[in-house]
Design a protein that fits this description.
5-stranded mixed sheet; about 400 residues; F-box_dom; mainly beta; 27 strands
Length: about 400
C-alpha cells in the first residue's frame, strides 16, 4: 500500500508540474492524515511507510485513532500480543507502540490464566489454588466453551490442544506441577483422564515450554535440549527419548537458557528455539529444525536425531511466547527472517533478526545483542484471529 501511494504521488506530482508548473509534495500532507493512513498498515507496509521521508516517519509517533472493539481494529487478522491484566485485556500489534494498544474489557478473562493459544482460540484455566476451571475463549467473537473442571491435587502448568474446540477431534492435554501428572480430555468426554508421568533419568521435560500435540502424540522439549515423545493414550512410562546431535554447540550455555519453545513448522516439522540470557554475545537465540521422526513405541533406549541449524527463516516470521507460538509467512518480500518476542522496551515491541543476530525495533535504530531495561507483560501470548464461526446454540463440548 505504501509503495502504491509513493508511485501515485510521483505521478500526480509530474502531472501537476507539467500542467501548472507547480510542485506539490505528498510529504506535506497533514500529520493527522498521515497518522490515519499508517494506522491501517501492517508490519511490512508500515515499515515501508516510515522510510519514505522524514514527515511520514515522524507522523507514526502520533497517537493512533482510538479503537472501541477488537473487531474494529485494522489488524484484527494479524498476529498481536495479547495480555490479560486485573482490569482490562490489552492487544498490541508489532507496528504499534504500547500507548496505542487496544484495551478492551473482557470480564470472562479477568480471573483466568492463559495456557495456550492457537487457531484464534485461547485455552485458559481459573486463577487461584481452588479454581480448577478450564475453558476455551475466542476474544474476537466472545464465544466461550467450558470444559469439565480438573480436580486433581495440582493445577495445570503447561497445556496444549490439537485443533479448534469446534472440531470433533479436539484433544486437550495439561501437565501438572513439576511434570508429576498429566491429564487429557477429548471432545465429547465429560471427565478428564489423568496419569502419573514416569520420569526417565536421561530426560527432564522443560517446565516452561508448552507440549505440542501432533498426529496423536505428545512432543515435549527437554531441559537438555532433547525431545521426549509419548502417546497420551498409552502407558506414560513409554517415553521415546531423542538427543539433539547439535546441542553440543550450545551445551556450555544450557545453564543460561532463559526460555525454550517448541513450534510446528508449515512443513509438518518441529522447530526448537532456545533463547539464551545475556552473556552469549555471539548468538542470543538458537533455532533448530527437528527431522520427521519414525516413532516406534518399542524403542526404550534414547536415540540420536540429526537436527538442522536454522540460519534463515526465509520469508517467514516466528512469533514466540509462553502461551502460544507459531510460524507465519509474510507477503512483502524481504520482511521475514525475524522472531517477534513478547518483550516491550520503551513501549515498543522488540524482535530478533536472524540476519543480524541482534534485537531490533521497527520504530527506531535500536540494535543490541543483549537485552536491557525490557519488560514482558504478565499473562500474555501471541494470538491471531481465525475464521469467525458462530457456535450453534446447542453446541456441546
Amino acid at each position: 500500500m505504501a509503495k502504491q501511494i509513493v508511485r501515485y504521488s510521483t505521478e500526480d506530482q509530474e502531472n501537476q508540474e507539467n500542467k501548472k508548473g507547480l510542485h506539490r509534495s505528498w510529504s506535506r500532507l497533514p500529520p493527522e492524515l498521515l497518522c490515519l493512513v499508517s494506522s491501517y498498515l501492517l508490519a511490512g507496509d508500515f515499515t515501508t511507510f516510515r522510510v519514505i521521508c522524514k514527515s511520514w516517519r515522524s507522523s507514526t509517533s502520533l497517537p493512533r485513532p482510538a479503537v472501541s472493539t477488537l473487531t474494529d481494529s485494522p489488524w484484527s487478522q494479524s498476529p498481536c500480543l495479547m495480555s490479560v491484566g486485573s482490569h482490562k485485556c490489552t492487544f498490541v500489534h508489532p507496528a504499534y507502540q504500547k500507548h496505542d494498544a487496544c484495551e478492551i474489557d473482557i470480564p470472562e478473562l479477568l480471573d483466568a490464566r492463559i495456557r495456550f493459544s492457537k487457531y484464534g482460540w485461547l485455552l485458559l484455566t481459573g486463577f487461584g489454588p481452588d479454581n480448577f476451571s478450564v475453558f476455551f475463549f475466542n476474544p474476537f467473537t466472545k464465544e466461550k466453551v467450558e470444559l469439565p473442571n480438573y480436580t486433581e491435587r495440582e493445577s495445570f502448568v503447561t497445556m496444549s490442544f490439537s485443533s479448534p474446540p469446534t472440531s470433533s477431534d479436539c484433544f486437550v492435554i495439561g501437565i501438572c506441577g513439576w511434570w508429576d501428572d498429566f491429564g487429557f480430555i477429548k471432545r465429547g468426554e465429560k471427565r478428564w483422564t489423568s496419569h502419573t508421568i514416569i520420569k526417565r533419568p536421561e530426560f527432564t521435560p522443560s517446565s516452561y515450554c508448552n507440549p505440542i500435540l501432533h498426529k496423536g502424540l505428545c512432543y515435549c522439549l527437554g531441559e537438555n535440549g532433547g525431545l521426549g515423545v509419548f502417546d497420551p493414550n498409552d502407558n506414560p512410562s513409554n517415553w521415546i527419548i531423542y538427543h539433539n546431535d547439535k546441542i553440543p554447540l550450545i551445551q556450555e550455555k544450557l545453564d543460561s537458557v532463559h526460555r525454550s519453545y517448541l513450534v510446528e513448522s508449515d512443513e509438518g516439522k518441529l522447530l526448537a528455539i532456545f533463547m539464551v540470557e545475556e552473556g552469549d554475545t555471539k548468538t542470543p537465540i538458537h533455532v533448530f529444525e527437528l527431522p520427521k521422526l519414525q516413532v516406534n513405541k518399542t524403542m526404550m533406549k534414547p536415540r540420536k536425531i540429526v537436527c538442522r541449524i536454522v540460519r534463515s527463516l526465509g520469508n517467514r516470521i516466528l512469533y514466540i511466547s509462553l502461551g502460544g507460538s507459531f510460524l507465519e509467512p509474510v507477503v512483502p518480500r524481504g520482511l521475514g527472517n525475524k522472531i517477534y518476542l513478547p518483550i516491550i522496551r520503551d513501549k515498543k515491541n522488540i524482535y530478533y533478526s536472524l540476519r543480524t543476530g541482534k534485537y531490533h525495533s521497527i520504530f527506531d535504530d535500536y540494535s543490541t545483542k543483549n537485552l536491557h531495561n525490557v519488560e514482558e507483560p504478565i499473562n500474555c501470548c501471541w494470538i491471531q484471529g481465525g475464521l469467525k464461526l458462530t457456535l450453534n446454540k446447542d453446541f456441546e463440548w
